[in-house]
Structures
1.
Amino acid sequence: MKKLHLTSLGCAKNLVDSELMLGALELGGWQAVEDPAEAELLLVNTCGFIRPAAEEAVDEILDLAEYKEGDPTKKLVVTGCFVQRYGKDLQDALPEVDLFVGIDDQQRLLELISQLADGKAERLILSQPSCSLISSAQPRRLSTPPFRSWLKITEGCDNRCAYCMIPAIRGKLRSRPASDLIIEARALEQGGVKELSLIAQDLTAYGSDLGGSLASLLRQLLAETSIPWLRLLYLYPASVTDELLELMAGQPRLLPYLDIPFQHVSSNVLRRMGRRYGRQDLDRLVSRIRSLIPDCALRTTLMVGFPGETEEDADELLDCLQRWQLDHVGVFPYEDEEGAPAAEFQPKVPDEVKQERFARVMEAQAAISQQRLRRLVGREEEVLVEGLSQETDLLLEGRARFQAPDIDGCVYINEGEASPGELVKVRIAEAHVYDLVGGIIS
C-alpha cells in the first residue's frame, strides 16, 4: 500500500477534519505511518487562528520538507486554516510544498492527490468556505483512544468578535442535521466510545440556522444512544439558556462540566471585543449555573492585554476570579491578528504589561484550582481510565467528570487494576494544583 504521514495541528475541531481526511485516504489505498521517512505522502493539517499557530505550521512544514531532499517521489501537501487564511501568499513563501488545499476542498483530497501524482493538479486549491459540511457518511479514522471521541456539530461561526478571524476562515454558521449527528453518535458508540465531547465554534448556536437548538439535539442523543458521558465544550456566554441547564441538571449522562470562554470580565473591554454581554451578565450566568447544577465544573478562557485594557480592568478580572472560584481557566496575552478589526484598535498595551498581567492571573488561578480540588479529597468519583500514566508505569491515569481530555488535569490511580476505557469508582486521597490521586474501590 502507498504510505502517508499525517500531522494534525490546532484544536479538536481541526482533528476531526484530519480524521475524515485519513479515513478517505485509507479507503483510497493509503496506509498511515508514524515515521515520515517511510511515507510517500507528507500531509499537514494546519491551524491559522493566531500567529503562534501559523508559526508552528511553518516550522512543521519546513521540518517535513527535509524528508523530500533527495527523494523527488515524496509529495508534501498542506491544508487547513493556515492555507485558507494565507493561501495565495504561501505559494511563493513555501516552494517546498507541492499542493495547498483549502478547507472546503478537503473532501476532494483523494482526487487532488491523484491529480498531483499524474502531474495534473494546480498548486493551490482554494474555495470560499461557505457551504461544506461534514457528514456521517464520510469514512473517519479516529486518532483518539477508542473509548472517547469528538462530535463536531457545526461548521463556521456568526459571532463577529473583534479579535477573531474564524468567520473569515471558516465561513458562516452551518449546523449539521440532528439525524446525521445521531447516526454518527450511534456508530461511535458501537465502536466502543464511552465519552463523546460535542464541539463547535459555539455550541449554543447549534440549530439556529435549522430551526433547532442544542437542548433539542441533546435530548435526541440521550434518547437514541446510551453513551455514558456526554461533554459540552465551547459555549457562548450570552446564549446559555435555563432550558439547557435544567436539562443537564436532570440528566446524569450530561456531564456537569461547561467550557464557556468569557474572554474578559470588564464590560468596557467586552464591548470593544464585540462580545454581546457585560460583567453583570457573567455574574448572573455563574450564579444560575451554580444554582441549577451545584457540582458543575466551570472552565473559561481569558485574554489579557486587549487594546485599551486598563489596570482597573485587570484588577476587575482578578476580583471576579476570586469571587467566582472557577475550576479551570486558560489565559493568554492578546496579540494583533492581521485582518481582525482589533488590530487597528488603540491604545496598545505594552508587551511587558501584558506579561505581568498574565503572570498575576495564572498565579491567582493556580491557587483557586488547587483549592477547588482539595474539597474533593475523601470523595468517591467516577473516573474514565485512560491507561498507564505518562509519568510512570507504576500508576494508572484517568479523568473524572470535571476533567476534559487534553486540556484539564487528570486522576492518578495508585491502587487497583483497570483497563483503558473502563469507568471505575476512585476514592480521592490527594489534591495537587491541577491533578488528583486516589485508589480504585470498585
2.
Amino acid sequence: MSVHQERSRSADRRVRVQGSPVDSCPAPPPEAERGSVRRITVVGEEVLSRPCREVTEFGTSELSALIDDMFLTMHVADGAGLAANQVGVDLRLFVYDCPDEEGIRHVGHLINPVLELPDPGSRRLVDDVEGCLSVPGATMAVPRTDRAVVRGFDKDGRPLVIEGWGYFARCLQHETDHLIGHTYLDRLSKRDRKDALRQMEDRREDVFARRATKAAGLGR
C-alpha cells in the first residue's frame, strides 16, 4: 500500500511495534537497515492473482531476511505496507509502517494473517483514496471498514493480534487482500479499474525512476 502526501510521518509520533507501545522507532526501522531492495511486482503478474501459501517454518534465517528485504523495499517505494507476493514470494506474510487517524505510527510484520471485520450491523464503510505499490502511480477511492482486527504470528511463531482504525485499518485490509490474490483494483467498477490502469501507464516510469533514485541514495 502506498503512502499519501497528506499522511506524512513524524519523528515524535507515538509508536506501536508489533502491536505494543514503544518509546520510539527509527525511520526506516531496524529491519530496513539490514535488508536489500527487491523488485516490486506489477499488476498483471501471476503471483499477484493467486492465493499465497501458508508459512510453515518459523524462526529461520530465510524468513528473517525476507522480512528485512520487504521493509527496505517498502521504505524505498514510500509505502505503508507490502505483501510478500509483491516481491515475488507467494507466502502469507506482510510488513507495515503505517500511521493511524490518531497519529500513532504502527510498525511490524504479520504471518498467516486472518482478517476479522466488525459485524455488518456495526461496521462503517469509508471511501478514501488508496494506492498500491504494485499499481504504480494510480490512486482511486476504495470503500473499506474503519476498523479491522488481524490475527496471525510473528517470525518466531508467537501469536499476534493487531487492531487498526482509520487509515491503518485500511492498510491491514489492503495487505490481507494481497495474500488471497486480490489487489484494490478488484474492488473497483470496470470504469474505475480502467481509469486506474490508465493512470499507471501514464505515471509508472516516473514512479520507477523515483524508487531507483532513492535506492541509489541509500547505497542499495
3.
Amino acid sequence: MNPLITTGAAAHATPTALSVNLNKVAWLRNARALDRPSVTHAATVALEAGAHGITVHPRPDQRHIRTQDVHDLARLMKAWPQTEFNVEGNPHHNLMELARELVGRGLPLHQLTFVPDSVEQATSDHGWQLPQDGERLAPLIEAAHALGARVSLFMDPLPDVMAAAAALGADRVELYTEAYARAHGTPQQAEVLARYSAAGEAARRAGLALNAGHDLNRDNLTDFLRAVPGVREVSIGHALIADALELGLAKTVRDYVRCIHRADMPEAPRR
C-alpha cells in the first residue's frame, strides 16, 4: 500500500504542495486535431519549474483530459518519484476504472480526489453531502485504498461534517474554495475565511489532512494559507494557466510557489 495513505506526508520541501491542474491545457489542445499544446510537455515544464505534483480531472465525455492523457502523464510521473499524481473525478462515473487501469499497468497513482460533479457540469460547484452520500462512498474509498491510493473528498467548508468524512475512511478533504475566492478583497473576506479556518480545524481534529482548491490564484493564495494552517496541497488550474498566457508557464509556477512560501513569512503590518 502507498505509505502516503497513512502518513499523509508528501515528498516535498515546502509545507504546502502545489499540484498543477492541466485540464485547460487539454481543453485548448482539443480545439484542433493536433497534439498542441502537449499536455505531457506542459507537465514537464511545470515540474521542472518546481511544481510538486500534477492534477487532472478527466470527465466521461473527455471534453479536456482524455483517457490517453491520464496514462501518458502517469508514465511521465515515473521519472519524477518525488512528486505526486492526483486524479480527480466522480467515483460513480469513470474515475475508478481509470484508477484500476493505472495500477494494473504499474503506473503511479498517489491520490484520488472524489468530486460529486454531474456529467453535464461545466466545473465542480459543491462538495459531498454527508451523511447522505456516505453509504455509497464508503466502499469506493475502500476500493481506492486497495489500489494503494490516498483518498481526498471534495468538501464545502462545513465543520460539522468533517468527522463523518473521517469515519468513512477518507485520508484528506479538499476544501472547495470558490466562496473564499469570491469574497477575497471584499468586506466579507474575514468572515468567509473564518468558516474555512473552522472547517480546517475540525478536519484536523477528526484526523484528516487538508487540501484546497478551486479559484485560488496569485492574489488570494497566500492569504488563504495564512488563515487556514496545515494545508498539505493546493491544486490550481484555471488561474494558473490563465496567468501562464501572460507570464509563461515556468515563471507562473515559480510565482505560485513563492505565494506558498510567503504564507510562512510574517505578514507585513498594514498602514
4.
Amino acid sequence: MNTPVISLEKGENINLTKEEPSLKNILIGCGWDIRASDQETFDLDVSLIMVGADGKASSERDLIFYNPAHQVSVCGSVRHTGDNRTGEGEGDDESILIQLDQVPADKHRLVVCVSIYKALEKKQNFGQVLNAYMRVLNADTDQEIRRYDLTEDYSKYTAVLTGEIYRYNGDWKFKAIGTGLTGGLLEFVRMHGLSAG
C-alpha cells in the first residue's frame, strides 16, 4: 500500500505507535546535496545520542556515530549503517537503524544530529548544504512514515539537531526539531551531558 508521504514542520510531532501499532524497527535516513559552486568536498555525518529522562547520556557509549567503535549501541538496539563522505547519489546519504522494542527502559529520547566534519577548519556551514532532510521509515516494509525537510537558512551553523524519537505514555513519538548549532558535533555531545574529550 503506497500512502502519500506527509512532511512535518519544525516543532511538529507524531505518534509512531498509533500510526503503525506493529512498528518495531525504524530507519532514520538523512540526505543532502551540496551547492555545485562549492569546490571543496563536504563530509556530513549523522549521529544519535540516547538520553534518560533528564536529557543526559549516561556514558560516551550512548553516542552512536560513524566511528567503528561507536556504530552500535551497547544494548544493540541502535546501529549506524556507515560513513558517507561525499553526499553523492540519490536517496539517504547516512542512516541509523533502531529496534524500538530493544531500547532500554531508561533511555527516554533518541536525539539525531547532522554535523559537518571539520567544518571550522574548512570554513564550511549548512548554508552551503541544499535539500537536507531527515525521514523515518518502517525498516521492515521500507515504507516512509514521515519526512522533515530542513528548509531554514542554517548559514551560521555547523550542525543541525534534526529530530528525536521519544517515549510518551508507553508510545514512541517523533518530533521535528531543526535547531542549528554553531559548535558542531562537540556542542551536540556537550548539551547532552558528555565531555568533548
